[in-house]
Amino acid sequence: MTDRIELVSPCHFGLESVLKREITDLGYEITRVEDGKVHFAGALDAIPRANVFLRTTERVLLKAGEFEARSFEELFEKVRALPWERYVPKDGKVWVTKANSVKSKLFSPSDIQSIVKKAIVERMKEAYRTDVIPETGAEYPIRISILKDLVTLGLDTSGISLHKRGYRTDTVKAPISETLAAALIMLTPWKADRILVDPFAGSGTIPIEAAMMAANIAPGLEREFTAEHWTNLVPKKLWYEASTEALDLQKRDVVTDIQGYDIDPSCIRSARENAKRAGVDRLIHLETRDVKDLSHRKKYGFLITNPPYGERLSEKEELKALYQTIGERFRALDSWSMYLITSYEDAEADIGRKADKNRKIYNGMLKTYFYTFSGPKPPRRESSPDGKENGE
User: Fold this and answer.
1) In a domain, 245, yes or no
2) SS3 at position 263
3) What are the Cα distances from residue 265, in Å, to 172, 271, 272, 303, 325?
4) pTM of the entire predicted model
5) Does residue 241 lie within any of the structural domains?
6) Longest C-alpha distance within the chain, in Å?
7) Whole domain around residue 263: which residue ranges?
8) How many CB atoms lie within 10 A of CB 75?
9) How many domains does the chain have?
10) H/E stretch holding 196
11) Between 46-53 and 236-249, two packed helices, what is the crossing angle to 10 degrees?
12) CA 204 to CA 268: how far, in whole Å?
């Protein structure tokens, strides 16, 4: 196998530009961007580094092949023609975890899965000159995506979805995923030296992701990945180097003003436990507080939040009053900016201000909008004689 590989990373629809920037910042070459996916190329170290460092992708797939297929026979032959022995050892356990088909003649996921598995096994039998593939070794899960008859096959290097950082064992109803929370923060100009408040903190995901960014804690540092067991492909040394790099980049002495509130005391208890597991509890202030009591004496802060959407009919009538309250409390904050994700159609009207910008994002199958209500920029900081910066 060559050192140059191509990888595919899926993300929420509407957040491709955020993931693209992250991958570029890691030093890898973007080869293609499509709805909900970014393709990129790099050396073998891209597998551990992408898994450890990327905040906004759900997983990292090693692209094994891409071709057009309009019949199951063609699918079988083209999958069998791929050099699977480059990726999977003789005892490797291959299984097709997911098949996704959009606008294709091949539309049955279960048929696609079984045909692909059979084709891979046939290829491996030929390559290894054996009648039986024992499948007693490491797991090599395969994901298949078919869009308009273009088939893309990828080996899933991540395993459990990357939004599972390992810190959130306590969840609340309608939680925002870690990857989405990170992406929303990255869509704002917030930096670690600015105030951030989430008045609907729930299990604390937005404040925790912000604190991890402030301290430069890599999201994948405390978890395992499927490809760690692929010693035939990725040397253990590369995983060790990625972890060491992540530890070296941490800023444990960072000072922040990150706050999370929720009206439900059980949510705040969960958020505190989650923050502790993430190693950022000292960086976040969490307390039980109703949004109607939201206030802050400082200027130029950020509200970044995921308020209730009212997906249940019983909540619909309560939403108007809630979003009116959000608007009132936001106007009472001096020179703040607000960034809010919701599927509630009357959000702007009830907040009482047209958003300066809104971005359509699919949260799963739910269409949401990320609204930007910009406040004034703070005055430029001046350096004092001791080299420290003055000003808000």
Assistant:
1) no
2) coil
3) 11, 10, 11, 20, 20
4) 0.93
5) no
6) 77
7) 178-216+251-377
8) 24
9) 2
10) strand 196-198
11) 40
12) 7
